[in-house]
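Lab meeting prep.
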Amino acid sequence: MSKSIFISHATVDYHLVDILITFLGDVGIYKDDIFCTSVSGTLESGKDFVEQIKNNVQNSRIVLFLLSERYFSSYFCLAELGAAWALNQNILPIIVPPISTEEYNKTPLIREQALNIGSDDFLENFLKDLARKGVIENSGISFEKSSAVREFNAAVKKELGILRKDTSSFYMARLIEKKTRTELEHKRMTCHQLVIVKTPCDYTEPKIITYWKLNGLLDVETDSNITEHWISVGQINLSSAKIKFALGDVIDKGKDYKVFSIKDFYELP
């Protein structure tokens, strides 16, 4: 049986999907009427899951795309997007920051009006679109007084500030600030300290260590006082502002920040 709403999303974005589905329940659209592979029981066991996805894309009243960076990096998600675009004209693209409108406009969906889940007016416009598509009637929600709206906005804001690893334990992040320090500073050892312990002082040009600030906090953080996460790329010169990486250890920390080493990494366009 087809559903009213099909939600197309990257697996790593399931926390954001949960927030959206919880709100939809507040306006009378429950899990039984939503096709979403992150929801337990959506896919029937013993049946071809690709065929189930295809059938529900074709027959759902509306297809929602959660267009995050992870979405655009997934071949399966992009195939799902193409199929929905071809099979179901009732589509609603939802931009997930830090994806920008400019980046969205480079996709084949440029002609489709998109909503931004991080914007203040997202829910109001979202519900209007669902009503226009015949998925819901007028919700009657007071956007200034509704606790469901407040809870949604707070939960989304918090989630958009978290960087989550994928099933391969790789993170994807944007690098928003750069700092450099010498190798001696990095090791917290100065030439003066070396002299004190009667070790010959090396006056050769020190190597430069680069720190990059990430556009959010990694999902390993448990200290509420930490507001910044940085990664150290050693002496590597990055040419891209986006990177996919496996996390190493904490190598430096302060009252409100931590610096991590990284293992394997890939620069992204």
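Slide two material, second protein:
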Amino acid sequence: MTEFIPHGYISLHETLDHLGRELFPSEWTGQEQSARTGLMGIDEWLRIKDLPPARGGGAPGCGRFQNLGTTSSANSPQSLGDPSSDSYQMEYRAGKRCEKARDRLRALLEGGDLQAVILDPFTGALHRAATNLWRRWDAARMIKKGEAPIPGRSHSGSIIIKDFRVPDAPAKPLPAARIADAIKVLQEEMAKKSLTRSLQEDFVREKFPGYRVTEEQIRKIFQSIKVPLGRPKKKSDATEA
């Protein structure tokens, strides 16, 4: 079931995806948030893979990577796959990118640059998350889990973010330097075929799709277009001029 997101907000997943693309424009794949935890980088793996089995609680090599050189415990990075494989390392790097995106989100929330609320799943109420929430020792865990305690309640709610994404900017007006180009291409087109004013306008806008050709610019272009001698104006030209 898809999580409901109130109007004006976006999910934590979508927020991290947006920030990830800003941080890693050419590397972010959109699959980073599904990367498993507990993986290790190739350098770390090469350093410890041939270590002999550890002996005793204080012996070198005991703890997190104990016996990785010979066996795979259920909680070891090796149990998640072959650390020397390309797919394993790709997933490891994806997880690191996701960590960076979560760290960036926490910094933006703590600095007040982004606003988060906590959605109560039982009442539907939205509780604004204070900036000091992101200074707590468990702030990173809350962001990773996507949940935070609801003030005055014994249960947690979903963290959602006030929509901060900038809508697509409108196309810029056609630069004055390009008006001469518009006049030229329109003049050449009209030498081939007869066009009404409305068709001329459509033609110019289609030729410059990356710009917004203003009405004032259209009038200026029309004023510069000369009707060939001996060619009478169409009624539609006279009507629309």
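Talking points for slide two:
Strands lie at 9-11, 116-119, 126-128, 147-149, 156-162, 172-173, 211-212.
DSSP finds eight helices and seven strands in the chain.
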